Amino acid sequence: MKFRPLYDRILLKRVEAEERTPSGLIVPDAAKEKPLEGQVIAVGSGRRLPDGSVREVSLSEGDIVLFGKYTGDEIKLDGVEHIILREEDVLAVFDRK
Known about the structure:
The protein has no helices and eight strands. The protein is mainly β. It has one domain (about 10-15, about 35-95): Roll (10 Kd Chaperonin, Protein Cpn10, Chain O). The strands form two sheets. Strands 6-7-1-2-5-8 form a six-stranded antiparallel sheet, with no helix packed on it. A two-stranded antiparallel ribbon has the order 3-4.
């Protein structure tokens, strides 16, 4: 299904959480929290400013970002859970280097 967010919204797919802790312990499913990292799947065209111009979204498809725990709306597309949120709800972008 094609999906294009409007304005300054972005569509994210959560990055899977690690199965083990840094010390090597396996984390059971019941103790796992939803990861706060996601991959940008689609971005909107940008926010319209009061003067009529459009400020483009600074993120691009494929970026890995960190977002707040209680931000965005969860939706399902083709049976896969995604999150749609505004660009301002993104806390950081992970550097690919």
